[in-house]
Write the structure tokens for this entry.
Amino acid sequence: MLKVKTLSNGVRAVVKERPDLSSATVSVWVKAGASYEREDERGIAHFLEHVIFNGSEGFPEGEADRIVERLGGELNAATSYDYTYYYVNLPAEEWEVALSVLSDLTLRPLIDQKHVEKEIPIVLEEIVRSKDNPHEVFTEEFLKRLYRRAPYRFPILGFEETVKSFTSEKVRSFYERFYTPKRLTVVVEGNIKGESVLEKIEELFGNLRREEYYFTPETENELYSNGKFTIKHPTVELPYVLLGWKLPPAGRHDVYYDILDSLLSLGRSSLLFRELREKGTVFSASSNYQNLKFGANFTVGAVTEKPEEAAEKILKLCRELPSIAEKEFEVAKRKLYRTELFGREVGEAEADSLGFASTVMEDIGYSTEFLEDLKKAELPQFLKAVEFLKEEPLFGLLLPETAV
């Protein structure tokens, strides 16, 4: 049973009873990812995540981790473009402990200069390591070229010069601007009693009072970015080709792009596997829909010794989709339906889906009604949604340093 409630201060509570589970996932979602940073703050959303784990008013540094680990659980967090979230997975009967820990860490963090100075070299090392990963370097450059206005053209980790400039005042400023009631969602899923959980959420989060800061990042309004670029990296062994198209901001229409992803690369019956992998053009190939709030994108990538040939065949395959048969469309829908249904059996995965829907999309139906939206999807609407494939994509090549 799903219970959704907005507290009087604006915090959203999403509670899903799952008596089939023995565990619980407790998470706090914040609409405060890298998309919301100013020019001089690049990387600060991720940096704040680091600082928050240095302790809070109720839990000295390291104590929250020790408490959760003693209970056999896991405490962690992640920062993306459009959100940051903190979560605990642990035995269901300990859900209240998880809520207490996460509420204190996120609502009463100790953001002081000592901890900021401690985290700066750690995050700088992350940036250095990311440059040793050819696919991270390539993806960063790809997004930088794909987007003109939306903030996805900047790396989540930020830049060395911005991270070095961080102070406790700057980090606290970002925290106070964005960790506000209307930007928070608390999600609890597992073998719990919904009403008891809602009461506890009210107790722990209902008294948060902080002025709301209204800021909306720029939305990508130019839907086409083409061109070609090449990056060489010393650790690359086989060429990698990536084709990408920009799409409108994520929404309930995403179901059609998810069907496209299923059609192209879900399983051995997918088009990319049959037409490229089995015929020896590529070693592997996959597609991906990235559902971003201020301008989404769809990409198709392949590892291949014949990148130009692979790119041509991918484009040909995509442009032939208007002639796809109803039968193949329905097969793609069924594969996606079963994959989604199977994935939601894992409590953590479903909790993540609910948190994203409530926080980023501000539409819980984006998650709860997805399967119904999928059932209703029809071929004519799908073909209209994927007309973007007729446009020229951005074409990126990642090559070995020795390539001619």
About this structure: The domain at 227-400 is CATH 3.30.830.10 (Cytochrome Bc1 Complex; Chain A, domain 1). The two ends are 59 Å apart (CA to CA). The chain has a mean pLDDT of 94. Residues 113-131 form the longest helix (19 residues).
